[in-house]
Amino acid sequence: MDEKEILLKTIEALNTTVSSLSATNTSLQKRIDELTAQVAWLNRQLFGRKSEKLAPFDPNQLDLFSGQVPEKASEIKEAHDIAVEAIKETAEDRKRERKNRKMMEDLPVLERVVIEPDGIDLNLYKKIGEEVTRVVEHKPGQLYIKEIVRPKYGLKDNTALPPSGKKSVEIAAMPLLPIYKGIPGPTLLAEILLQKYEYHLPFYRQVQQLRHLGFKASESTIDGWFKPTVELLKPLYEVLKSEIMKSDYLQGDETTVPVLDKASHKTNKEYLWMVRAVIQRLVLFHYNNGSRSGTVIEDLTKGYKGYFQCDGFEGYESAFKTRPDVLIVNCMAHIRRHFEQAQNENREMAQHALKEIQFLYRVEHECDERGLTTEQRKQERLRKSKPIMENLKLWMETEGIKYSPNSLIGKAITYAYTRWNNMMRYLEDGRIRIDNNLAENAIRPITLGRKNYLFCGDHEAAVSMSVVCSLLATCKAHEVNPRDYLNDVIARMPYMQNASYDELLQLLPHKWKNNNGYHYYNSNGCIL
What we know:
Layout: H1 3-47, H2 73-104, E1 109-114, E2 125-139, E3 142-155, E4 169-171, H3 186-197, H4 203-212, H5 219-245, E5 249-261, E6 266-277, E7 282-286, H6 294-300, E8 306-309, H7 314-320, E9 326-329, H8 332-341, H9 347-370, H10 374-399, H11 408-417, H12 420-423, H13 437-450, H14 459-477, H15 482-492, H16 501-505, H17 509-516
Parallel strand pairs: 1-3, 5-8, 8-9
Antiparallel strand pairs: 2-3, 3-4, 5-6, 6-7
Helix pairs in contact: 3-15, 5-14, 6-7, 8-9, 8-11, 9-10
């Protein structure tokens, strides 16, 4: 046998072996699939759901009865769909009712409102029942149930026709509630917002308080109420933004807000912006995915013309560098702060600057004490403050060059000098304040809040915080009781879904105050 024959026989044997192995492999793979299916079934029996749901309907599947469709098939199908939907709603309603009853079982009924249907003729109708809706309300220190009772009337004579425009069974329409089919009333929702953003209590602490008052709500329940309540208030937020941009003098600031990144389970330091219409005393917080880029304030103030007062953050300069109709005014308090920090390094130079700045503040205090008008204040500034400002600028030009820009005094002089021309703009208009402290005061509650509720759950939660805090800060600026305001506005907003701009404007705190006359703080900032 030559070498060629040996190779051919070897190849033939190998082919036979491969065929045999392939057949064996197919058999083994089939057996593996069977065993895998058995393991999956056993796992489902032990750990999975045992529901016998039908497979999804395939519209391409042939119908066994396609040639035997009855004449009223569409009507039957429509009636079937209505019945199925009613069954679903009934089951959901029963589940919700059981949960609500358990939450409210320890609360007293302190208020009962009976709403009779309009124009009911008791000679024709008799009372056949009533619909009772229970709403949880809040007053300081107590939770209680408010029952909304709607008597139901039916015709005394079942064979008679109802009067024109009436039905056989009459019942008053249900008043709109802040949350559709929800149990919290406006006062409870207002209290949740106040506790969170006015008193800085996170939801889990509020849950503890509510349970002490007899209300067995969970943190997820309160969170579920929070989101639709903020959605109710968002139209007011948009109107507030528009009104602020109509001003010609704004102050701005930004601060950090920890926002939870659910992917990494860590909090990121994001940024929240604030603008304040100083003369109108309107405050707006703005959140844009946590960005600190100057484009955020640029987009927010699109179309704005006037003075914009801020600290020395370069983002403001970049935002308005191509907008000559926006004049930046910087903050003397920030300039003074840098010189205060330099006292330990060069006391003589730092105190010279601080003394001159103190003269500028004395002029402002004198104007306040004398009750000068804005024009009189402007003239007083030109007479007294302008020479001090010009002298300080000359001092920085002659003395400042002697110090290294890396030293504390050098940094203070550089910070002040590069912003001095912007700072001198406050001399042009008596309305402009010497510093940005009003903006910093408005943003301070955010700083306090993040020390208590620690972080926002996501970007959406940070936007919601902006909406609520804007309205609360504007209430404070206008000395409006925020509890009274939110109690009233949250009750009204369900009826304002198609309201005009002017109608929504009347619900902003400064307009609402004129219509209701509520106050919260006196002239010294003390609670009344």
